[in-house]
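Subject: sequence -> structure tokens, single chain

Hey, anyone have a minute? Need the predicted structure for the following. Not urgent.
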Amino acid sequence: MLDIRQLRYFVAIVEQGSFSRAANFLHVAQPALSLHVRNMEADMGTPLLVRVPRGVEPTEAGAILMRHARIILDQLTVAEEEIRGHDNDPSGEVRLGLPGTIGQIVAVPLITAARTRYPKIKLRIAEAMSGFILEWMRDERIDLAVLYGQADRHGISTEQLLDEDLLFFGPTGGLRPEPMPEPGSALPFATVAQMPLILPGRGHGLRDLLTRVAESAGTAMNTVIDVDSYGNIKSLVAEGFGYSILPENAINAEIREGRLQRWIIEAPCLTRSIHLARSGRRPMTKAAGVIHDLVRETLLDLARSGRWIGARISAPDGAAHRNEEGAPGNTGPGDAGLPVALGPAVRRTAVVSSRRRQP
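Reply:
Had a minute. Here:
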């Protein structure tokens, strides 16, 4: 079988018109070139060169080989240039999974930065509950994810970046005849757990976290309504159907508008961590690697700048603990009739590409 070196030597011999000139051009001993040609002719079963007074010329078979050799070598050059350029200008598709509450904060600045820095990368962002995103990571249906809490041991590598406190909130007018503490003050978790609560259903990451804390405290959550949508939870609370627990960023707008009021939870303080996840079983592509770093940069910048209200960096300069294990993942009921490629729970998919939409 012919190899690339033999093709290069053969093309040089034909273009130079003689073994001696080709040897000087290639800086290869002439006997070595002659040996390569003899081996090629033996492999092909036919003469490839014929001697003429001025040197050598290709036979009919040699001309056919010359034509194909040039195409092969030209294509190899294109591939080498594309690979070298790929390091400086990566391209391809990267699939990122985000919980809905994080997507509301991260998606726009991340998309903006990705389009500016890496116009050849097509970034697909799919939003769902953390449990479904974790399942996609296990099945390698997405390349990267941002998760609440650590991933499990199913070949997923996570890096803790941020922490955010969970707050207790209710309608501005209150629910009970007895007065509530001043908004902004602290309430013990045991007291919060006994309030009529509107929470995500079982299997949702937040609900499971609250259930574990309640069990540790020897109490139970007084859940009166199960709703998996944060938007519906806030609307029901504002209408006076109960209280709830969400991160500060999720309720900040309603607090400013005077529709909701909030309290700090203590004994214990409720905190959940934000992790950047990738597959630990396969190497990242160049495109996935730069988007991974860009997601990390975006998350840390949102916390530093205060745009992610209530979030704080887990360790100085985001040098958080890296791990490949943690608490079991969450799964929960999702939305039906949505893209099958990522599963039934996709809430929204954004495709970012430098390609212009055709009319």
